[in-house]
Design brief:
The protein has 123 residues and is mainly beta. The protein is built from 1 helix and 8 strands. The chain has an 8-stranded antiparallel barrel with strand order 1-2-3-4-5-6-7-8.
């Protein structure tokens, strides 16, 4: 009986701990530039190792920037991306094979809405 209860508790803990985010994600960033609303495609390729997230993100597969300080904390993902001209700060919420949240340019920049869906899961 104790072993069955322990197995059930471990299974529940594993389910609640969240899935590995490793893989390719695709989506959009909604932003305003010069007063005009724009939707820009975004591709993110990540590798999760425990709470650490590494990889790249950018508007296309061949225009990627390195993820810095990527952290997974429960269903929240935070990271910095050096876009060359500015640092982008992202805070995303994970819901299964979807992530959404905000990205901003610089520490005090205007927030942009970002939404991603997993398109390929690496194991």
């Amino acid at each position: 009986m104790k072993s069955i209860l322990l197995s059930l508790l471990l299974a529940a803990a594993w389910t609640l701990s969240g899935a590995d985010l490793t893989g390719k994600w695709s989506g959009t960033v909604d932003m305003k530039q010069d007063g005009d609303a724009q939707t820009i495609p975004v591709v993110m390729i990540v590798k999760q190792d425990g709470k650490t997230l590494t990889g790249t993100v950018g508007p296309e597969d061949d225009a990627q920037h390195n993820i810095q300080k990527g952290v997974v904390d429960g269903d929240t993902v935070t990271m910095e991306v050096d876009g060359g001209e500015a640092i982008y700060y992202l805070e995303l919420k994970v819901d299964g094979d979807q992530m959404s949240g905000a990205a901003k340019i610089g520490a005090d920049g205007e927030k942009m809405k970002i939404a991603l869906k997993r398109v390929k899961q690496d194991t």
